[in-house]
Write a structure and sequence with these properties.
The complex is a heterodimer of chains A (372) and B (127). Chain A has 372 residues and is α+β, with helices and mostly antiparallel strands. Helices cover 22% and strands 33% of the residues of chain A. Chain A has a 6-stranded mixed sheet with strand order 10-11-12-9-3-13, with helices on both faces. In chain A, strand 18 and strand 19 form a beta hairpin. The longest helix of chain A is centred in the middle third of the chain and has 12 residues. Chain A is globular. The termini of chain A are far apart. Chain B has 127 residues and is an alpha+beta fold. In chain B, strands 1-2-3-9-8-5 form a 6-stranded antiparallel sheet. In chain B, strands 4-6-7 form a 3-stranded antiparallel sheet, with no helix packed on it. In chain B, strand 6 and strand 7 form a beta hairpin. Chain B starts with 8 loop residues before the first strand and ends with a helix. Classes of the chains: A alpha+beta (372), B alpha+beta (127). Chains A and B meet through loops of A and strand 4 of B.
Chain lengths: 372, 127
């Protein structure tokens, strides 16, 4: 199994639970457990090793135009130091991957990919997409995945921790970044974003510098009750905050419109890969819709469980859990749109061979309270 | 190291059985609760239903995953542990104190045929 540059920092910690996550040996939780780690991020601060994520640089005078074609969001009007969330689609409108794009300068972009998709994404970006395969001039694409470590510092006290280690970082706006920040004398990309629904930061550095930064964050974080956090809490946190997970809410069989991510699909752009198919889908009616539900009967809904309206199979659960923050069993489902279901309407979810009652509710399940 | 009380019998699916008068109490072992992680829901069988050995009888859900519980010995459910309804985490706190369900009409020889503590400990070492 592959290990991240931080593996040695936690492999000997007491009660850390390591799992095989798509070929990576990563902590699902540390000693405190998933629930305590989840609450630490909601109420204090947590630190995640997410070095399994992929990164590449796309560079050259065509970089912006090329990326603008490759993703559904707009890249050409980004400013230096800005970050956007972007969906990279196939010509049929389904999703290759969701990306985070950082503009370092007008000809240099840092692109973050899902760990399980790195090879597929790089093949798509460099060879298989319609632009590259038509022998048009290409920007340079350089894979940095193996040599880069990534950490996420998340929670209301994340800003206090960063304030002590990198004061400049504490004044970053949301979805902005510093291309050359210093933490414990090590250079890193420091950005104000995350995948938990809380305020927080992500940090990218050279693999060799990762242990120093990890330990500096944990040591400084002690005053703020920091906990190292695993993938278990990362999943419950993102689920409560309605942040999509590739392979669940989006995939190569689901379009952004079905996943209610239309706000990231910019039909006003002249062209992008998947535009025609998505435009057609928008005009002819999006067939399925991602909806939130809460269980009425106690049971844990999970990915793949079927959803029924009366006796009719109308779709399936994409993600579900018992929300640690709210204490309810809840999740998302991809269901036929022509059912016309409204908030409060009841459906059945088949769990362990039995139909369990659930109802449609508004999402996100959790939204952080804005600072007064 | 997993806790394995010497006065119980064990299945290879990581359940324990304790005889209390006419009832057989069934729970999950320390090894099982530790591998499952934090338990958030327990689905228990209906009372008075008869189950064969190795039949799926209950479900335990942790934050991470669902896990089926296989009935270790044939019998009829005489009671379930209602405390777990609101507080499934009790299993993580003390898995040998908090049973899942009780069986009646079971065969004592079936219980004797399960692993003793030493046998279960040896079995765990092979995993």
């Amino acid at each position: 199994m592959k290990r991240t540059p931080l593996y040695d920092q936690y492999c000997s910690m007491p009660k850390v639970k390591l799992i095989d996550f798509g070929g990576w040996e990563l902590p699902v939780n540390f000693e405190a457990g998933i629930l305590a780690e989840h609450h630490a991020v909601r109420n204090a601060v947590g630190l995640f090793d997410i070095s399994h994520m992929g990164e590449c640089i796309i560079r050259g005078h065509l970089a912006a135009t090329f990326l603008d074609y490759l993703v559904t969001n707009t890249v050409v009007d980004m400013t230096d130091g800005q970050i956007i969330y972007a969906l990279m689609c196939y010509p049929d409108g389904t999703v290759v991957d969701d990306l985070i794009i950082y503009r370092i300068d007008s000809e240099t972009y840092w692109v973050v990919m899902n760990a399980a998709n790195i090879e597929k994404d790089l093949r798509w970006i460099t060879k298989e997409n319609p632009w590259s395969s038509s022998n048009k001039e290409m920007p340079e694409v350089i894979d940095y995945s193996d040599q880069t470590a990534q950490m996420a510092l998340q929670g209301p006290s994340a800003i206090s921790v960063i304030g002590r280690l990198c004061p400049e970082g504490a004044s970053l706006g949301f979805f902005r970044f510093l291309p050359e920040a210093k933490i414990a004398s090590k250079t890193c990309i420091l950005s104000r974003n995350g995948y938990t629904g809380e305020d927080g930061f992500e940090i990218y550095c050279k693999a060799a510098d990762a242990p120093v930064i990890w330990n500096a964050l944990l040591t400084t974080g002690k005053d703020f009750n920091i906990l190292p956090c695993g993938l278990g809490a990362r999943d419950t946190l993102r689920l409560e905050a309605k942040l999509p997970l590739y392979g669940h809410e989006i995939s190569d069989t689901i379009t952004p419109l079905e996943a209610n991510l239309g706000v990231f699909v910019r039909f006003d752009k002249p062209d992008f890969c998947g535009k025609q198919a998505l435009k057609r889908q928008e005009q002819s009616g999006v067939p399925r819709s991602l909806r939130g539900f809460e269980m009425i009967d106690a049971a844990v809904p999970r990915n793949g469980y079927r959803v029924f309206l009366k006796e009719k199979d109308i779709g399936y659960v994409t993600s579900g859990t018992k929300s640690p923050t709210l204490g309810i069993f809840c999740g998302y489902m991809l269901i036929d749109r022509d059912t016309g279901l409204k908030f409060g309407d009841e459906i059945d979810i088949e769990i362990h061979g039995k139909k369990k009652r659930a109802k449609l509710v508004k999402t996100p399940f959790y939204k952080k309270t804005p600072k007064k | 190291m997993s806790k394995i009380p010497t006065d119980l019998r064990y299945s290879k699916d990581h359940e324990w059985v304790r005889i209390v008068q006419d009832a057989a109490l069934v729970g999950i072992t320390d090894y099982a609760q530790d591998s499952l992680g934090e338990i958030v829901f327990v689905e228990l069988p209906p009372v008075d239903e008869a189950y064969a050995a190795d039949e799926e009888i209950a479900n335990i859900e942790s934050v991470k995953a669902a896990s089926a519980i296989y009935n270790p010995i044939a019998g009829t459910v005489s009671a379930v542990n209602d405390e777990l309804d609101g507080s499934p985490e009790l299993i993580n706190e003390d898995c040998y104190k908090h049973y899942l369900y009780q069986l009646k009409d079971f065969n004592k020889a079936d219980v004797e045929a399960l692993l003793d503590a030493k046998g279960y400990e040896e079995f765990l070492r092979t995993l």
